[in-house]
Amino acid sequence: MNGAYIFIDEYGNTHLDLSKAGTFSHFIFVAVIFPGDKYSIALETRNEISRKYAQGHPFKTKRFSLDQKIGAIYLLKELNPVIMALVVDKAKVVGTGLNYHTIFYKYFQKMLIYRMSKIYEEIKISIVADTHGTLDFMKSLTKFVQSELSLGDLFIPDKHYTIADDKIEEPLLQLADLAANVAGNIFCLSHMNEDRKLLFQAIQPYLFVDFFPYDSLTEHIHQSLSNQDTNNKISDLATSSVLSYLERELYMGNFIHRDILEHILLNFLIDKDRLVPSSELIEVGKKINPDFTEYQLRQAIASFRDNRALVMSLKGKHGYKLPSCAADVVSFYNRFGNNLIPMLKRISSIDRVFREQSFNELDLLSQSEDYTILRSLIGALTLKN
């Protein structure tokens, strides 16, 4: 392969004060990557998009309709690029240094480029990023990336990084603009498109996503529970359980519940290990009801589980996912077991005080059939101990 080309653009802004109206909840860097011998195909693809949707002019995807965005993505078929996205949840960004626009931008672009330079470590790569900020900042950014990642130096001469204008200097950056805008419509909760499922279906064949910060649900369990066949069955059952829930007529009218569950499913299809933070799901709910709360999110999750949609959570973390393996299921069982067993022990202890001090006259758990199951659980716990 004659090396690779990488074109980078972004969606959103670096402002971390999310209280201002219209502020982007997420910042997204996107890279469009293809082999060097497909450069002419990339140019023709860009030109075809321009002719079809921008009357032959340089295009900005934010001006496209939904159908035009989907159509433009489908025109990538012959190029068949790799599209890498780094999705930054600005609400989770910590560290005083990252409050500064220049540091924030450099930090996350470096993170994306570092990952790509490791993936394509053995081949020549040419990285072109879209212009951003002042001329002085772009000079500083170029120097920073080249020095931090040793791009283009004596020891790694086949890795190059430049910044270019997408209208005159490098029109292929318009493909990165297309990918960044579509990724923003899917993953930026404050500005996501209500038809993002259609956008995701179009771009999914090319898309790989990394999240910052990354939160996953993992737990070491006995190897016999972890064989791939078992894990595949669990993953398939989880997906079908959610699709079945979404297809039921009873739930068609609850748009908040549908959007939350679809968001969990979408993240699962992209990354089966990612735990979707509660804060992210609350923002999904707020798109319909601005007063949506964490309590209402918990009610939604309970409704999913009560109706056989396999949504799971991890002890000590505020987030949810579908199970992709036996370890996920065991983590879920342990989370509730760690809550349930201490509660049963407390009830047993209180019941014992009443019965001992009253010589069994206050055996309240035996005075109602409503407590039959509770008595059985306490009895089982007593036998175990």
Overall residue-averaged pLDDT value: 86
> Which H/E pattern describes the elements?
EEHHEHEHEHHEHHEHHEEHH
Residue stretches low in confidence (pLDDT < 50, at least 5 long) are 217-225
Report the major sheet.
Answer: 6 strands, mixed
CATH class of the largest domain: Alpha Beta
Could you tell me the strand content as a percent range? 5-15%
**Overall domain count:** 2
Question: Number of helical segments?
Answer: 12
Report on this model:
With 385 residues, this protein is α/β, with parallel strands linked by helices. It folds into 2 domains: 4-212, Ribonuclease H-like superfamily/Ribonuclease H (Nucleotidyltransferase, domain 5), CATH 3.30.420; 223-329, Arc Repressor Mutant, subunit A (Orthogonal Bundle). It has 12 helices and 9 strands. The chain has a 6-stranded mixed sheet with strand order 5-4-1-2-3-6, sandwiched between helices. The model is unreliable at 217-225 (pLDDT under 50).
Brief digest:
The protein has 385 residues and is an alpha/beta fold.
Helix and strand topology:
Blueprint: E1 4-11, E2 26-35, H1 39-53, H2 66-74, E3 82-89, H3 101-119, E4 125-130, H4 135-148, E5 159-164, H5 173-187, H6 196-203, E6 207-212, H7 228-247, H8 255-270, E7 276-277, H9 278-286, H10 294-306, E8 312-313, E9 319-321, H11 326-357, H12 372-384
Helix pairs in contact: 2-6, 3-4, 5-6, 8-9, 11-12
